[in-house]
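Issue: copy button drops trailing tokens. Both records pasted manually instead:
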Amino acid sequence: MAKTATNQQYVVCVRNEACEDLEVRKIYRLLPDKRASLNGYVRVIDESGEDYLYPEAYFVRVKLPQKAQKAVAASA
């Protein structure tokens, strides 16, 4: 079953040392990746639409209201 905008997870970037492609205070979509998580990383989708691994400490997980999730998904 395809994921809908309402069951996706999001993070906010709070640091970007050595990762200039990340924008602090920007919301990114989080993709599940257990292996990455075990190693202290998260997989996020950037502006290009591609997913990349970044240090987990660079992000804070956020729960967006349903309306905000739909708006973020529509802008991707």
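Record 2 (pasted manually too):
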Amino acid sequence: MLAEIESLLVLQDRDQRILKLEADLKRIPIDQERAKERLANDLESVAKAKLAVQENEVAIKNIELDIGTRKATLTRLKTQQYETKKNDEFTALGNEIERYNEQIDDYETQELELMEKADELRALQKKAEDALAITQGMVDEEIASLGSQLEENNKRLAEVKAERAKLAENIDDDQLSLYDRLMKSKGGDAIVSAEKSQCSGCHMKLVPATMISVQSEKEVTQCENCGRILYL
């Protein structure tokens, strides 16, 4: 193998590492955001559960106010009935007292039902909060792990870039320029194998003249189809 090709292959190895590290560095913040998004459903469930508990508590307080108002009215009606001397008024007040007693009974029944519902709603809230705590722990751990990866990848990227710079210093300018152009245009594969008379980059069959040039190892040879540098 040509010494120039060997040097370029080592350089390509570093460049491919750089590309992978840079791709990972772009991906990690996205993964962190996705991890946070996993909390969204659990947070929404907790919020809904809390709201249901609060609305139920408000409903209980409203019923308690209604009961209190009617009991006060009932006390007043009983006093009026006790003080009246008229039979028709006594009867009318008695009917009102009965109606208010029925209303109070209905409200007290509703209050008991809401109190039972309150226990169920609080249990659902506790369940939602427990699920959130588990998810939060997992997400926190994942975000911390991704943060460590981010730090390590940044460090490694700086090291590989430094290695790459030193390697590039020892490569002919024209060959380096050709290589750099191919790296950009060919998605990170500037130098590829010509095994079985086929370019492993574009997968096209190589003409005999190209294969003879590669096998002679006298000069850098490019694929006549895609332009990639070839080696055996």
